[in-house]
Amino acid sequence: MNIPVHDITYTQNKIKRKIEYLKKPDWLRIRLPVVTKNVKNIKLLLRKYKLYSVCEEAQCPNLSECFNRSTATFMILGFICTRKCPFCAVIKGRPIIPDDQEPEKLYHVIMKLNLKYVVLTSVTRDDLYDGGAKHFYNCIRFIRNIKNIKVEILVPDFRKNIKIALKIIRKCPPDVFNHNIENVPRLYSIIRPGANYQHSLTLLRTFKKYCPDIPTKSGLMLGLGEYPDEVFSVLKDLKKNGVSIITIGQYMQPSKKHLPVKKYITPQDFDLFQKYAISLGFRHVFCGPLVRSSYHADQQIMT
If one looks up domain 5-302 in CATH, what number appears? Predict the structure, then answer.
């Protein structure tokens, strides 16, 4: 399926005081969520066990909705990242020593919340020889003690050694393996300093080789200056490297200290990207302004 590039219409940039600030369009205007008692209780439970959710640390716009549904994406291996990606709201710096009790803490919290689908992600840990793979393995192993539960992991790129990391994880594999490609290779030096586009594709391809029956997943955030034909090319690369589930959402600037939004993608354009991805043969495709990699992850795999 060929979609002409000129069919993709992006909102034009507005420049103010030499910094690009775009007015948020109507389709991104949502009501402020109500902080319910359930949300407060989940936050208190996380604090009690000294656990972190990417929903909070990354300032996800869907936090209250997910918490109100008693779902959360847990962020393991601490809350400080060794990378300095300028789009991300997670704290950067020298990370803390991994908590050996974290897998057991996760088990207790998941049991208390009565979850049936759990997403585990982490900060990037370039300081660890395996990138944190053994910690992922330990967390999955503990969670598997809970009956009728599915586990998705959203992993960093394991820059030091992909094979070492994946050989550890495949000993107790997840139900879904996720690694976000984020954006197009041309912008990697700006958006993902320290990362490599081909390395991320190799990670996805290698896991699929080790565990061919487990779905692999990836995600993109748009609005950082990419061109439509570049997005089409990335989707082709992901499909060629074994990815079967794709999420595509709108990048939103966490603060003025982070990369500004270059373009707001219209719902119509998201529909075109979705149709193109479906035409490539992806098993599940989720596109939209508020779509995030872990947003309704349980529905993504069950749809």
Answer: 3.80.30.20
